[in-house]
Amino acid sequence: MITFRSLFCAALLLAPAVCVQAASSDLSRWENSLVTLEVNRQGYNYIQPWTRRSLSIQKSGVVIGKSKILTTAEQMNDLLTIRIQKGGRGRWYFGKLEWVDYHANLAVITSDDEEFWKGLKPASFMKDIPLSGEVRVLRWREGKLEARKMDVNRAQIGTGRQTFIDLLHLELDGDVQGIGWAEPIIDGSRMIGLMEQQQSSGGLAIPAPFIKSVLDKRAQGNYPGLGFFNFYWQKAENPDTLEALKLKDTDHGVIVIEPIAKLGEDPILKAKDVILNIAGFDIGPEGDYQDPIYGRTMLEALATRGRWAGDEVPMTIWREGKEMEIKYKLPKAKFSDEMIPDEVFDQQPEYLIAGGFVFQPLTVPYLESWGGDWQRRAPFRLAYLKQAMPTEKLEAIVVLSLVLPDPFNLGYQDIRGVVVRKINGHQIVRLTDVENALKDSKDGFHTIEFSPGDSPGKIIIDAKLLDSATTRVLKRYGIEHDRLILAESK
Q: How many whole angstroms separate alpha carbon 421 and alpha carbon 469?
């Protein structure tokens, strides 16, 4: 299922219109470049994390080279099998995942079956993509190659489909339903992007220049992943603020309001720094710059414009009344660096059951158990924790997510989704802390304390009866194991 959760921070100004057409002769060559993927994977229930189910979806793939098929990374996690079909009908061949980058939302599929590759031809990427005008979105439908007209509306910066960082997208308008599954957007014989999300009036696509840069970097070996600008800024518009910063040039720069760094590291930027230029591009007071491909573009694009995690980006800044040069090292986009991870890919949810009390790490997939509108429907305190510190890793959080009713926990069975702060006086940050704290009872009892304001505040349970109650609960509810704690979490 597609969850529309991307929030976009700014729209970009349009470049001069470029009208493109897809002739029928150009479409015929795509019959040997466009394939269908059937993806089967594990799905998990974060309310009952010990359960799993099989999920199956179909999406598009584009042949991009010898034994290589490009698709989006969405739904490629926790894989069971991949099958590939060419020509829109007929035999299915087994494929396998060769590489995936969830933050870039790109994946490469291959197949060991040489018969599959016969007759297939790689597609080519368009270097200078149109920022307006007519294009086509392609897909196999009922055994026929369907080409539907769409219009490029604009390029824009927004939160990526599978990540928390900001990426460039192409916004397209058109009355086409059921898209967003890696369908190629084409200009004749060339691809200008991959569709990654449907919207009410069209959809969003990953631009071809970005795709090509990622694939080229990977081909060089030792692909480092995407980096990002880990700071918050505001427009440099208020004359009083600029005067206080001793900066008279109001045509350049944005003001850093919150630089963020990992624990134990000092941020390169400081609050009240004014960023004037990034990598040779002057930054306007509204946070944009003139991109040679995308036109007026927000500064976040410069973090992924031919640069990668660990790269040093030159910046000209204004600090304490003086202009100076610095090098900003791009941190790597990693879900594990978030206090509350946005995604948990390719692993079963962690949990620990003790006497029917179910403990879990707080993650966005857990919050999404309340539905696509979890920001409004999930318990306010939990949703607020995510919004308050979206990237800075201060600590992880463990919640008592559920109580499986049993005589041992009678009276506590209605507790749901409360943050665990201490057990037997031990600070709780990860599941291993819960595991260790339950080995250290006090006077024959376990005391579990929750965040201030969370009802019931704390609970006290009999330590001597805990193990027998856990065994009884597991048997009653058909649960095989009382815990799953991954090695990297220990």
A: 23
Decide: 450 and 421 in contact? Cβ < 8 Å. Answer: yes
Q: pTM for the whole thing?
A: 0.87
- Cα–Cα distances (Å) from 148 to 63, 122, 132, 145, 174, in that order, read 20, 21, 16, 10, 8
In whole angstroms, give the CA distance from residue 219 to residue 211: 12
Q: What is the DSSP letter of 227?
A: B
Query: Helices marked H in 2-106 — which ranges?
Result: 24-30
Token pair listed for 169: 């997208």
Cis peptide leading into 456, omega within 30 of 0? yes
- 139-156 pLDDT per residue, tens: 999 889 999 999 999 899
Which residue is associated with the tokens 């307006």?
A: 132
Go through the domains of the chain in sequence order and give each one's CATH number: 1-223 (2.40.10.120), 231-329 (2.30.42.10), 337-489 (3.20.190.20)
Number of helical (H) and strand (E) elements in the chain, helices listed first: 9, 30
Question: Would you state the pLDDT for residue 389?
Answer: 53
Q: Is the pLDDT of residue 362 over 80?
A: yes
Residue with tokens 């509108």: 373
Token pair for residue 297? 């573009």
Over residues 413-431, the mean pLDDT reads 93
